[in-house]
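Justification of resources, computational component.

The compute hours requested in this renewal are based largely on the per-chain cost of generating structure records like the one below. Each record pairs the submitted sequence with a full structure-token output. That output is archived, and it is also reused by downstream analysis tasks.
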Amino acid sequence: MYTILVVDDERWIRKGIVKMIDCEKNQISEIFEAVTVQEAMDVYDQKKPDIVLTDIRFPVKSGCDLIEYIYNDNPNVCVILVSAYSDFAYAQHALRFHASNYLLKPVSKEKLNQAIRMCREELDALEEKKEKAKQSESRSIEATVKKSPERH
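The structure output for this chain reads:
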């Protein structure tokens, strides 16, 4: 199961996004909300969500500041930007910090859930890769132990 943080300073948009998320299909156990970038950083630090959906424009800090903050903590968090602006500079910044998707408002329920599903698939693949690396490392250690001569 995954957790999501939804960040938007406009309450009706934030609540609308939360309502559109298909928790069952997307294996979402919990949704956190934040109104400002600073609040989002605090929630992120406390809850460590797997997926972050954020607007870009905020009164003080920007969504770009948030994705940079998250990326510096954990580059594997899946970030989806949801914005009313199709500004190329924002998109470039999002790409620099490995944002998974850039959705334009108003976003449809279908596109939103598709973006979340893509994040989930990315996170699943990453987890599988980590698990295979651990198994490979374990086998390698076991083989080394078996090959080493016993000491008396």
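The beta strands are 2-7, 28-34, 51-54, 78-83, 101-104. The chain has a mean pLDDT of 90.
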